Amino acid sequence: MKLINPVKLLTDARTAANCAYAPYSKYRVGAALLTADDTIFTGCNVENSSYGLTICAERVAIFSAISAGKRKFKALAIVSKGKKSPSPCGACRQVLAEFSRNIPIYFASASALKKFRCIPSADLLPESFKL
To answer: pTM for this structure?
Structure first.
């Protein structure tokens, strides 16, 4: 899997995490999505006291790109303000499978961007629901 400027994407994701609204979990996450035309869309997690209404940073970034007419993506970076690097929830994995079948996903904690992990999106949900 070819690296696609992961430090830039991770830095943008860390900046997005600063905007997170996480008064309940205190777990701030940011995401940066690189589109096929090299546009970057960011997102942060937004919690709600009705937990089912909470939305993750990954989906905010993807839905922002989709809303702008983008459908092809090159890479995604996800950064948490916690000590450990984040991992997408099941809903985010399914959304990634819908729109990004095999892109590199970079994970890091905000305090250690250069210690990132990279996993192909196809490996996150190997038997995803597909029509």
So the answer is: 0.93
Question: Quick one: which of 74, 81, 72, 67 has its CA closest to 29?
Answer: 81
Cα(32)–Cα(71) distance, rounded to whole angstroms? 15
For the stretch 64-104, pLDDT in tens is 999 999 999 999 999 999 888 899 999 999 999 999 878 99
The reply to whether 98 belongs to the active site is no
Residue 14 in any domain: the answer is yes
* DSSP track, 39-55: -EEEEE-B--SSGGG-B
- In CATH, what number is assigned to the domain containing residue 107? 3.40.140.10
The total number of structural domains in the chain stands at 1
What amino acid occupies position 118? C
Among residues 47, 58, 98, 127, the one annotated as catalytic is 58
